[in-house]
Structures are given as structure tokens and as C-alpha cells.
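Forgive a beginner's question, but would it be possible to get any protein sequence you like and the C-alpha cells describing how it folds?
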Amino acid sequence: QHQFRGYGGREQEEVLGLVVMKVLVGLVTLVAAVAAVEPYFRMPSPYTYSCIQEKCIREEFNSPTENKQRQQQDQQKYTTLSECSLVCGQYGSMWPRPSGDVTLAPETTPFLPQNIRFTKVSASNPQVEEMLQEQAHYFQRNLHFMHPDYRQRDKEPFTEYQEEKYRKADREYKQSERRFRGDRFEDENESVARFDLFELSSKLRRQNPESQSQSNRQNFESQFRNQEQRRGREQMRYERISPFNKQQASPIAEKRSFEVEVTVTGPETQLRIDTDESYDLAVQTVGDTTTATIIASTYYGARHALESLSQLIAYNELSNSLQVIKTAKISDEPAFKYRGLMLDTGRNFYPKEEIMSLLDTMSTNKLNTFHWHISDAASFPLYSQRQPQMSYYGSYGPSKVYYPQDIREIVEYANQRGIRVIPEIDTPAHAGAGWNFGEQEGKGKLVLCNDPEDVWFNMCKEPPCGQLNPVNPEVYGVLKNLYSDILEAFNPEFVHMGGDDTSFKCWTNSPEISNYLTQQSKEVNSRELFELWNTFQTTAFAKLYESVEETGVSKQVTPMVYSSSFVKNYIDPKDYIVQLTEKVDSTEIQQYIAKGYKVVFSNTDIWSLEGPAPSWVSQASTYNRDAPRPSWKQVYENSPLDILTGLGVQNARKRSDPSQLGQQTPVDQVLGGEALVRSYETDAESIQSTVWPRGAALAERLWADPIPTPYQADRAESRMAAHRERMVNRGTRAETFQPEYCFQNQNSCYTQEEYQSRQEKNEPLTQATQA
């Protein structure tokens, strides 16, 4: 009242009105802020879960049966299946299971993904630190994806961070262009691939590592230590649209903090065949703070550790929060160095984003090798700067071409996910599209048996046919150009040269071949055609290494080839790695081991993830497939070392003594394995359901290589079901392999055969299940 003394009635009313307006605005703002947090309600569940013999057994709350079982087993009761799955059994819901020591506490604690802080990141160089920074974002993104209300269409490949990195590289490039290019830059093409810009920024970092390291550390701290500042426009998109930011959660979860500490001692930024991928992970909860500590020799081990940490976390529908195992300790490393997936993009084209999604799920499963079968007789989608005619004539269309920028982005994305990329240009067979430009440009016939008017099954296994002309010298010049391009684009450790399905029918019926052999006073018979293949492969091998020398990109490149009778007779074990495509029971596998080859297993009867159906163009037996496509359990139980043991190879699981230099045992020759997707009947719309979850079964076989035991795959079934759900939550369109009922009632789904077997052996059905 004193404040308004001396004012007339009208002035007083205006002032009072202004005060009332401000109060109303404040109330509206408060109501809007409260309304921005969506209420959360879910029906309670009448069920509880107990971990009995590594299965989460569901019972009604306080039912007599449940009380009896818990008294007998002395098991803790869990209110949700997700909580029980996290802690039940030796490995909880981890996939692939660790190969070393694992300790998991039987309790969890709630938290929100917004409360995670990376409080320590210790790396030996700025590049490793930057890679860890991106992986930390990726880790957090996957935690937000765990919320069931996160929209599936928003779960795209994580390129948001890469785009910002490339923009930063672009700025650095423009600031330093004259220093590196001088006045010549003005005369050159100014469109530079984003990956090139990133490479240039890396060069700048190497020139001034001290200042760059300090800059990176400051940037990392601003990204993670100052979490309270990461709101609004500073948030990543996955955070802004996350239901965790929009819905109410348990007050207990809101006050809990989660700190992550990462130490990487090694400087490696490129995955090699001998890279140490091991890690140690410890989780400890004291009061309201959970701390995860990761120690690894390389970035790749630390990346695997973050993946394992994410698998110690699950969504809790009752508290609308996440939950993490209170205490855990894991020491882990892979059993095999090579854990791969082959994708054919020649028969069907896959957009870049779909390949990146595939890489994401591969990293979830700790697979580390993407074998890219780029071309086939049907199409040549790779743009070659030295030989642009190949994609001009050979692609399915201008939009279905992988340009150098696409390749480099995929390779960079894969490396960030802990995956090497192996390019393959299959020769001399599976070559057709693109190679038909030769006659138009005066190079003669580069490819044979590619006339669409010819009856295809007289020449090859599938249409279209096509096989390189080994007696035309121009072929090898084109091959060298292609090798140079892929070396520059991929910077690979391995280059796959193909070598499978060479057709003698094609060469026998080609006038070019018969005329050549006649001029050499040779007959057209099997022995001469074998020699012709050897001449081709020897020349192609030489051209590859000429490209290695001239490009100077890769310090060491090792070629790979598919197994065949040609390989066994001509290929030097010191020069090549052989990809074994023989069936599981083939005695030829033993012969490769006896001759000293280093091998990668890809048994086509088990690890080919799609089976050509008779409805396409031929019977399945044409493709070495006389059985339906394998189940995930068949994929899981296919062990390379057990195959060797079954074929009579001595000491198949015994590793060589490190003190005995030069000594090699069979297990040292087996680099690992690879599943195959040849895209006969798979494309971008069906690739994920074709690969997953069977590709995950392959991943655990190659990461942990569990020793065969009765009901081995059955015991892993509940973990596989939980992992399949995890992949789906991250946006993977994984195929289901059982009704959800079986996951929620883990002692109820079994076959008649299993029931009878267990009755005869007096074993409880809760020990394992089979859907």
C-alpha cells in the first residue's frame, strides 16, 4: 500500500494489473513446465520371477508353488522379468557371453540415462580420445533406446556425431588450405570428400599434438562432465526426443548418479588381425553412486567393454527408469581374431544407411569383420575413379552406386564400431556387368559367357553368367586399376580376390580360349584349364601387389580366396588366407589344415544364412545346399575346432607354446569364421531379419567358443531371447524364433523328444528349454 501511495486511481490500477499479469505468466510457465513431463502409469503385475537353474521362473505373487520353490532353491524374488534376466545365471543376459571370469551380483539399482557422466577418459593419444568420445555418445544413445516408447523410426545409424566431426574438419581444412596446397588449390577441384577433410584434420593434430590433445580434453569435459549444461539445443537429437526426458520416473532413480571411467593404454586407431581386443570391466555401487571402471589395451577392447556394460543395464517398467547390476566384474577377450559377416551387394543393392545399420548390430554382437562382396556378374556398383566404365555399364542405376565418399564413410563408421572392412572383387568367375565395355573401347572381350541369349545353366550356376577372359592382357590392366582404387578407398589389411565357381564349361565353349590353347599347341582339357586358372591368379596376385607399391596406402595387404580344387593345387599357404566353404563333414577341410593354410570357416550348409529356394531358378543342391536354412541353434553349435576334432585332426584345441618360435598348431591356423549372405533372395528390406538373431549365434560361437555340452544351445535360449529383444530395442528388425510366452515362461516350452529324454535321464525340465 505504501508503494502505491501518491498515485491516482488509474495509475494504481495499471500497476496492480501489471503485477497480476506477471503472476499469471509465472503460473502459466510453471503449469507448462509441469505439463511438459508426461505422467507415467503402467498396470502392476501379479507375477514375480525367481532364478532357478539359470531360468527365470514366473509365479503368481505369494503363490504356494512359488513359496515352495523359493524355499527349496533359496532364490531371490524379482518383480520384473527384465531384472531377473539381468542377474540370472552365470552370464545374466550378456551376449556374446564373456570368455573369461564373470561375477554378477544378484541385485540391481535404478538410474536415469541423463545422469550418466564419463568422469575419466585416459587415452594415449588424441585420436583414441576422440574415438572414445564418439563411442560414449553411442553408448548413451543405446541406453535411451531401451525405453519402450522410443519410436522405432528414430533409431537410425548414429551419424549425428560424425557429421559434426566432418564439419569441424571442414573448418580446419579451410583455415589451413594454403599451408598445405599453396596457390595450386585455387586451380584444383574444390569439392573435397568429407573423409579427406577429416584426414587433413588428423594431419594437423599430428603436427601440433600437445595443443590438440589439450583441446580434445577440454572438449570431452564440456561434453560429459558438465552434464547440467547439455540441455536444449546442446543436446544430441537422441536425447531431445527421448521418452526419458518427457516422462515421470521414480524419484529414487532420479537422484542416483552413474559414473564411467575409461583407461586405454595403447595408441591403435586401426583394427588389425593381431589387435588386442581384451578388456576388464568392474561395476561398483556405493550409496547413490554407481561407478563403472574400464581398462583396455586398445580402443577396441574399451569399445567391447562399453558394449558389455550396456548389457548389464535394462529398462524397468515399474520405475520407468533403467537399472544396472550393482556389482560386477568381468575379464574378457575373444576366442578368435576373425569374426565376420559377408554381404553381397552385387546381386542386390543395399543403401549406405542400411549397411551402417548392419554394422551397428554387428558391433552389438562384437563381430569385427565386414566382408563386402561388392560386385557380382549381375552388377558392379563400385565407382572406380581409374575405371569409371565399370559402374557406368555395370550398376543397376546411377543411384545404386557406391562412390568414394560413401566407401570412406562406411569404412570410418565400421572402424568406430570395432569392425574392419574387407573388400572383394570376385574373379575370374562371378564377373559380368561392367566388364562388357571392352569391345567398345578397343580392349577386346574382357568377359566371356555373358551373352544373355545363351542358355545360362549350360555355363554357370545362376543367371547371369560371366567369367573373365584370362587370355586377354587388357583384363589385368583393368584389374590393377580396380585394386588401386579399393586400396585407396578402403586402406585394407585384407583384400578378397574371390576365386570360387570357376566354370570349365564356360572356358571350354569359348572360341577365345580354344584358339589361345591351339596357338600354344595345347589341348582343351582339364589339366590345361587348371593351368590357365593358375596363370590368371598368379597375374592378378602380381597386379594387386603392384597396386600396393604404387599407391603406398597399405603397408601390408594379405589376399584371401575361397576354397576350391584350384586353391589346393596352386595357392602358396604363405601368401593367402583361405575361406573354407566346404560342408561341415568334408574331409577337404582337414587337407587345408595339413598343408598349413590359415583359414576362415564358412561352412555353407550351416553358416550360409539364406538358402536358395527351388522356386527361384534351380534346386537348392545346385548351391551346395541340400537342407533348409539353419536355425540359430545349428549356427550356434557349429564349432570350427570341433569340426577339426571330428575329422581326426590331433590337438585341434591346443594352442602353440609362445616360447617355441615358428611353431604352429591347428588352432593357430584357424583365424575364425564368417557367415554368408549372398543376396539370392535377400535385399535391404529383409537383410536384418535374414541375419539376426542367427548372426548373434555365430558371434557367441566365435567370441567365447563354448566347449560342447549336452543341451548347450538350449541353455543359451533364454539369453538369446533377451538379446534378441535388446537388438529390437536398438532398431534391428530381428526375426523372432519363439512366441513371447516362452520367454516369460522359461520352463514351459519344450519338445516331446526333449521331455522323453529328460524323463529317461531323470533330469528336471527347468534345466533347459527348447521352443
In short: The longest strand covers residues 257-264. The mean pLDDT is 85.
